[in-house]
Specification:
5-stranded antiparallel β-sheet, 3-stranded antiparallel β-sheet, 19 helices, 15 strands, globular
């Protein structure tokens, strides 16, 4: 039992009671950790006693950062919502008062007041005006918006709580792997809350069709199975192109320096890393990797190395990220690629650390006789999405649970898990899949667009559908795996709506289809009249503008809260006809407009006839 301090009759507390009191607002897991450390240091001897008590006091003060903006570490989402309402009301009243008080330069005075208050609340780094495209008026509108504050406080709360958990040593494979239990539980609650909201929300389009929002989400990359399948399709498509071009495939893993890791594995279990700098968190480590990759990529580009492939970010057991690269490049460039990675991920960043030379950069040339290049990345894709096809992780934990913790880790630190390197944008690929190919005048389409439409609109019921080959065909039609954005053959088509958002800013243009310019193949009519089937096939300039197939969905059932004035705004708006323009070299000679059933994806139909991707055979 702890001895009573002198003055107990005057309601003085014992050391144990004092420790319990100052930790009362902390989560139970934090209290248990601090109490265990305090007991290990405490002794009745005065110097040891003071040292142990001061250590607890210092730790609690550091953990007080998690209570920035008035949120306790054990706050729930309802508390965050209430706090967001308080902040929105406070800033709305304060900005209005500042503008009334100062007749001269009222907006400037309002900005000064808002910035001072953000700094006073310890949230100067969250000022919305730091964003490059946010005007001062937009920043003032945001800090008066409850929705903006809700998002901001959730981000602040998630990161500060997780940072404190890492500081307490809770995040490692011996205790709470990848992410703390608090953050994992919060993410699971968020996923469940979103799923319930999607299930309750009912939408209706202009054709009277009603669907739940959850049903529409299941058809998009929000569905983890769809997301995983699309990633593997794109990776396999790149692999197919690399085989055709004779390019080499390389698998590279890069890790952060040792001083960014809180824990280390000494063989007998995890122990605190003596080289840890005490301040690097996963988001800062991710910034380090991003910065070094940008330098390495520029260094390689200056030496004529063109790369394409994918990058996957995943956590070590202590939450510090590391990256896996699957890169395709011209044969004979492996030595240059290796030199670039070692230069920026090893030689210029703490190269003398123990184990750095052996573990910081690992390069493996892929042997296709042992499997495709895509198979090297398959397990990392599965682990970081839904655990499909993998039973356990490296530490023996069920992969389903591991994928949930990795998802919580990525959500907490806002880390982009998957990134395509090189190649044309996937947004154009997705837009091509929304185009109804029924009755399209194939003879007027540019060859690149016709080839892409054929490749991406493979029927799901086709047993011989080769999605990876479809992605490969799309990449070739766009100009190849290393085509620069300014030379894309097919681009998105956008339409300005002129609508103003909730913060007084003009909305970005809506994507409504694709546009392409190139050449198509045809037999001139006068040549056909003279030679018939023996008429030569010639190329002519062609341009096409195709609107994709969309519906205007509006909310008709409860489940989501829409901003004021936006309850009736449809989610998408597109005309009900496809516009196609053909340029035959004599200016715009033909403008073809025709209407067809817009809901081709929602009703049975025959498979569309293949569109030509090149010149037809000459009889």
């Amino acid at each position: 039992m702890t001895e009573l301090r002198p003055g107990r009759a005057l309601n003085w507390l014992t050391d144990a009671e004092w420790v319990d009191r100052i930790m009362a607002t902390l989560p139970t897991a934090w209290q248990d950790t601090l109490r265990r450390e305090w007991r290990g240091k405490w002794s009745s001897a005065e110097p040891m006693r003071q040292r142990a008590n001061l250590a607890v006091l210092h730790a609690v003060r550091e953990l007080g950062d998690s209570q920035r903006a008035g949120l306790r570490p054990d706050a729930n989402d309802e508390t965050i919502r209430q706090r967001a309402r308080v902040f929105a009301r406070h800033y709305a009243q304060g900005i209005a008062g500042a503008m009334r008080q100062w007749a001269e330069w009222p907006r400037l005075r309002a900005l000064e007041w808002a910035l001072d208050n953000m700094e006073r609340h310890g949230m100067a780094d969250f000022w919305p005006g730091h964003a490059p495209k946010v005007a001062p008026e937009g920043a003032l509108a945001r800090v008066q918006c409850e929705t903006w504050w809700r998002r901001t406080l959730r981000k602040l709360f998630a990161r500060t709580v997780e940072r404190c958990s890492i500081g307490l040593g809770l995040v490692n494979k011996a205790r709470q792997c990848y992410v703390s239990d608090l953050s994992n539980a919060r993410r699971r609650q968020q996923v469940a809350r979103n799923a319930a909201s999607l299930e309750r929300t009912e939408l209706e389009n202009e054709y009277g069709q009603r669907m739940k929002l959850s049903e529409l989400a299941a058809k998009s990359t929000a569905n983890k199975a769809v997301r995983r399948a699309e990633l593997m399709t794109r990776i396999s498509g790149f692999d197919a192109i690399a085989v055709d071009l004779g390019h080499a495939a390389t698998f590279i893993t890069v890790t952060c320096p040792s001083y960014m890791h809180k824990w280390t594995d000494r063989g007998r279990g995890v122990v605190p890393n003596p080289r840890y700098d005490g301040q690097t968190t996963p988001d800062l480590a991710q910034l380090h990797l991003s910065g070094q990759w940008a330098k390495a990529r520029a260094w390689l580009a200056r030496r004529g190395v063109e790369l394409y492939g994918f990058r996957v970010a995943e956590p070590h057991h202590d939450g510090c990220p590391h990256w896996h690269f699957l890169l395709f490049h011209a044969p004979g460039q492996l030595e240059t690629v290796t030199a670039g990675f070692r230069r920026y991920f090893l030689d210029l960043v703490a190269p003398g650390e123990p184990g750095a030379q052996a573990h910081r950069v690992k390069v493996e040339q892929i042997d296709r006789s042992k499997g495709s290049a895509a198979s090297y990345l398959a397990k990392y894709i599965s682990k970081n999405i839904d655990g499909h096809g993998v039973s356990e992780d490296l530490f023996g934990a069920p992969m389903v649970e591991t994928s949930r913790r990795v998802d919580a880790w990525a959500s907490t630190w806002r880390i982009r898990q998957f990134q395509q390197l090189g190649g044309p944008p996937v947004t154009v690929w997705r837009e091509l899949r929304r185009i109804n190919t029924e009755e399209l005048p194939a003879d007027l389409l540019p060859a690149e667009l016709a080839e892409s439409l054929t490749a991406v609109n493979v029927r799901d019921t086709d047993p011989d559908a080769k999605w990876a080959q479809g992605w490969a065909a799309y990449v070739r039609a766009q100009g190849g795996p290393c085509v620069p954005r300014v030379r894309l053959a097919i681009r998105l088509m956008r339409q300005e709506t002129g609508e103003v958002g909730r913060y007084g800013e003009v909305r970005t243009a809506d994507v409504i289809g694709v546009q392409a310019a190139g050449r198509n193949w045809h037999r001139p009519a006068h040549m056909v009249a003279m030679l018939g089937a023996r008429a030569p096939v010639v190329a002519r300039p062609a341009a096409a503008v195709l609107e994709s197939e969309r519906c205007a969905w509006t909310v008709v059932g409860a489940g989501v809260s829409l901003p004021a004035g936006e309850a009736g705004r449809p989610w998408t708006r597109v005309n009900n006809c496809t516009h196609l323009t053909a340029d035959t070299g004599q200016g715009v000679r033909d403008v073809v407009r025709f209407s067809r059933g817009k809901l081709g994806r929602f009703r049975p139909r025959a498979a569309p006839a293949p569109l030509p991707g090149g010149p037809p055979a000459i009889n």
